[in-house]
Write a structure and sequence with these properties.
Layout: H1 51-94, H2 109-115, H3 122-140, H4 144-157, H5 162-179, H6 186-201, H7 208-225, H8 235-256
Helix pairs in contact: 1-7, 3-4, 3-5, 4-5, 5-6
Length: about 260
């Protein structure tokens, strides 16, 4: 008689195959061969990690720490650049030339102090304003060459009065443009140069974008040094930091002509 296997058991001929363990069928001399139940279990084959891989994984945090510190250092330098270096360098390189700053070495103490706003002597300021008004009158009469001479006096008399110098520079461009006879001639080029002086000078310490980016960069560095995710702006931060920054920029806009339009 043939044997019966329990329900659910896998019955079959034993085969020699990799990963399986089985036995050959039992053969009896007096009866037909009976097939035995063969239980196959999956063997899990693996290899142990070498000591070199484990040591390299233990070194991973150190490598991550170095790269993180380098990233924080780079962000810190970028913050300093946005707050001081970039805008002061732009200011010093693009402000109108004046006798008081012509011989100063870049980034020397005297050069740095000259970039800060200083009050203009009242008499010099009055003379600069008179020259500006006279230049406007000459320009209205069509005497553009004489008008340009008066506008240039404004830069010489009051080089730190940005609003007055800005007005003189834009009017200088208007007079050069009126003297131009064709696109691209010398007067046309001088008109563009006069406008560029005003535009680039306004992108120095007078440009609020530097300070906004510097604050956002410093905020990012602050959170990362504390190993916290950069959080959302809170009401306290808005009232204590953001509102004073915007009010300060608005005051500077009205008082010193930021930006140049």
């Amino acid at each position: 008689a043939r044997g019966t296997a329990p329900r659910g058991a896998r019955i079959g001929r034993a085969r020699a195959s990799p990963g399986r363990i089985g036995t050959a069928p039992a053969v009896s001399s007096t009866s037909a061969p009976r097939w035995r139940v063969v239980v196959v279990r999956a063997a899990r084959v693996g290899t142990e990690r070498s000591s070199s891989s484990s040591s390299s994984s233990s070194d991973a945090p150190d490598a991550t720490g170095v790269s993180r510190r380098a990233a924080l250092a780079g962000k810190g330098l970028f913050t300093l650049g946005e707050a001081f270096i970039f805008l002061w360098a732009t200011e010093g390189a693009t402000r109108p030339k004046s006798p008081a700053t012509a011989d100063l070495a870049p980034f020397s103490p005297a050069w740095l102090s000259s970039i800060l706003y200083t009050e203009t002597n009242p008499d010099a300021k009055a003379s600069a304003k008179a020259a500006l008004l006279l230049g406007e009158a000459l320009q209205a009469e069509g005497k553009h060459a004489e008008a340009i001479g008066k506008f240039e006096e404004v830069y010489a008399l009051a080089p730190t009065e940005y609003k007055m110098c800005q007005r003189a520079g834009l009017l200088t461009a208007v007079s050069y443009k009126a003297m131009s006879t064709r696109l691209g001639d010398d007067y046309d080029k001088k008109a563009n140069d006069a406008k560029q002086v005003v535009w680039w000078w306004g992108r120095g310490t007078r440009w609020p974008g530097w300070y906004i980016v510097a604050y956002l960069s410093a905020r990012n560095v602050w959170f990362e040094t504390r190993e916290d995710p950069v959080g959302a702006f809170t009401t306290t931060e808005g009232l204590a930091v953001l509102v004073p920054i915007w009010l300060g920029l608005l005051y500077a806009l009205v008082a010193f002509g930021i930006p140049d339009y």
